[in-house]
Amino acid sequence: MLREQIAASLEEAFSKYGFAEPSVAQLKTACNVSLRTLYKYYPSKEAMIVGALEYRHQRYLTFLLNESPSNGVESALYIFNKLEQWMKEYAPHGCLSMNAIAAFPDNPLINKAVKEHKEEVRQFLGQQSQREDLSTALFLLHEGVSSAWPVLGKEAITSAQKALLQLLEEDS
């Protein structure tokens, strides 16, 4: 339970301050625990980043599934509506996972966590849309929105949903 609370606080801190700025002392304060407790659960800053990313991954998939329709096309459109809400509320500066890779491009632990997250999202999109054959195309639309959000905002969602409908129409 404490590990999860710390991971939630780490996620919030990294989302707010990025990865380069917060020192371990600042992260300890953000988590409201002692340095010893923080290091007990996350023995390095990289481990703290991975913990935050793993926590965010679970939170994101749960967020997308909340009240999701079961119909393939409706579910796919719903995911992009939820993505818009997520970007507005939790990721106005873009995808936290991609920001982590940008900050630590050569760190194998962080790269592994991000790659696992992205692969699970790709599979999730295929399953929810009931079009596993289009999982990569849907994933590219999803990632495009995440990347373009800081620049395009709502227009990124609108364009992705239009492309999604065209893709599903052409391929049915």
From TrEMBL:
InterPro entries: Homeodomain-like_sf (IPR009057), HTH_TetR (IPR001647)
Pfam families attached to this UniProt entry: TetR_N
Domain HTH tetR-type residue range list: 1-60
GO molecular function, one term: DNA binding
DNA-binding region listed in the record: 23-42
Superkingdom field: Bacteria
PROSITE patterns the record matches: HTH_TETR_2
Keyword Transcription: yes
Keywords annotated in UniProt: DNA-binding, Transcription, Transcription regulation
PANTHER family assigned to the protein according to its UniProt record, in alphabetical order: HTH-TYPE TRANSCRIPTIONAL REGULATOR YJDC, TRANSCRIPTIONAL REGULATORY PROTEIN
Protein's name according to its UniProt entry: HTH tetR-type domain-containing protein
Native source organism of the sequence: Shewanella sediminis (strain HAW-EB3)
Taxonomic lineage of the native organism: Bacteria, Pseudomonadati, Pseudomonadota, Gammaproteobacteria, Alteromonadales
